[in-house]
Amino acid sequence: MFQKILVPLALTHGVSEKTLAAAKSLADADGKITALHVYEIPQGTVSALMGEERIQQGLDAAWEALKEKTKGFDGVEAEIIRGHAYRSIVDYAESGGYDCIVIGSHKPGLSDYLIGSTAARVVRHASCTVHVYRGG
Fold first, then answer.
1. What is the pLDDT of residues 64-75, one digit of tens each?
2. How many CB atoms lie within 10 A of CB 55?
3. pLDDT exceeding 90 applies to what percent of the chain?
4. Which distant-in-sequence residues (6+ apart) come within 8 Å of 40 by Cβ?
5. What is the 3-state secondary structure (H, E, C) of the chain?
6. pLDDT at 52 over 90
7. The domain that contains 65 carries what CATH number?
8. Burial of 128: CB neighbours in 10 Å, binned 0-12, 13-18, 19+
9. Nearest-CA neighbor of 98 among 114, 115, 79, 113?
10. pLDDT tens-digit map of 80-132
11. How buried is residue 90: exposed, middle or buried, by Cβ count under 10 Å (0-12/13-18/19+)?
12. Dist CA 124 CA 136 (whole Å)
């Protein structure tokens, strides 16, 4: 069905296995699946106070968590980028020529209706097909 699938993973949410499995079921036999984590660095003064060494420690920990989440999913490429979650996901998908995004979403709360969750923003702004897995 799809040749290039992007699976954004929030490393603290418990739906990674399910979104990766959904991507596997949607991929062509020779399709490519990329698991992407967007590492958001605090802005402004907080970032300056953290220092590059502390930021690198966070990135290293994120890499380890991402490797753990993708373990057992043969053929899934793992990537980490720095940026703002929804915008980075949409930009990465467009620049990489992805034809599908499979993203997990929690049950929406009141704040999601007012400002929108990452998944909702990806759905609104992505130029490709987006499948949303709503975890229970």
1. 999 999 999 999
2. 15
3. 62
4. 82, 83, 84, 85
5. CEEEEEEECCCCCCCHHHHHHHHHHHEEEEEEEEEEEEECCCCCHHHHHHHHHHHHHHHHHHHHHHHHHHCCCCCEEEEEEECCHHHHHHHHHHHHCCCEEEEEECCCCHHHHHHCCHHHHHHHHCCCEEEEEECC
6. no
7. 3.40.50.620
8. middle
9. 79
10. 999 999 999 999 999 999 999 999 987 666 555 544 589 989 999 999 999 99
11. buried
12. 22
CA distances from 72 to 5, 53, 56, 91 (A): 17, 31, 26, 28
> Across all residues in the chain, what is the average pLDDT?
88
Token pair recorded at residue 8: 């954004």
Q: Locate 60 and state its tokens.
A: 């290293």
Expressed as residue numbers, the domain containing 66 is 2-134
What's the total number of domains in the chain? 1
Give residue for tokens 């380890």.
64
Query: How far is 106 from 121, CA to CA, in rounded Å?
Result: 13
> Locate tokens 């300056």: which residue?
48
